[in-house]
Design brief:
By secondary structure, the chain is mainly alpha-helical. The chain is 67% helix and 0% strand. The longest helix is centred in the middle third of the chain and has 25 residues, at 48-72. The relative contact order is 0.10.
Length: 135
C-alpha cells in the first residue's frame, strides 16, 4: 500500500490531493515502523540491543540511498524508485522467519511458543499492584 501511495503521490497534479495522500502514507508508514520495532525482541532475545541498532540503521541507509536517488534522477524517476523499492521490500517480508515462530506463509510455532500461548490464553487478568499505605 505504501509503495502504491508513493506512485499516486508522484503523479498528483493538485496540492490538496498530494497533502491528503501524504497524510495517508505517513499513517501507514508509522504503523509499519511500529510493527517492525515490535518484533525486534523476538528475533534473538540475548542481543536485542544489537538487533534494534541494525533495524534503526536501515532507516539511515534508506535515507542516504533515496537522497542520492533524488540527487541523481529526475524527481518522478526518484519517486518511482522509492515506490518500487517499498513494494519489493513488502513482498520480501512474506519470507521472514523468526526462530521458534511461524512465518506469514511457512513454518510452525515451536512447542514452547504453543505452550506459552496456551498458558496465557485462558489466564485471569493480572491484578493491579497495591501501593502500601504509609505508617
Amino acid at each position: 500500500v505504501e509503495g502504491c501511495l508513493v506512485f499516486v503521490f508522484s503523479n498528483s497534479n493538485s496540492l490538496a490531493v498530494a497533502i491528503v495522500i501524504m497524510v495517508f502514507f505517513s499513517s501507514i508508514v508509522q504503523s509499519a515502523e511500529g510493527s517492525t520495532y515490535g518484533i525486534v525482541p523476538y528475533v534473538n532475545p540475548p542481543v536485542t540491543g544489537s538487533i534494534a541498532g541494525v533495524v534503526g540503521a536501515g532507516g539511515n541507509l534508506g535515507a542516504v540511498g533515496f537522497g542520492l536517488g533524488f540527487r541523481q534522477l529526475e524527481t518522478k524517476q526518484a519517486f518511482y524508485l522509492m515506490g518500487g523499492t517499498i513494494i519489493a521490500s513488502g513482498v520480501f517480508t512474506f519470507f521472514v522467519n523468526i526462530k521458534g515462530h511461524a512465518g506469514l506463509i511457512s513454518g510452525q510455532d515451536s512447542e514452547e511458543v504453543i505452550a506459552a500461548y496456551k498458558k496465557t490464553a485462558g489466564a485471569a487478568p493480572a491484578q493491579t499492584l497495591q501501593v502500601p499505605e504509609p505508617d
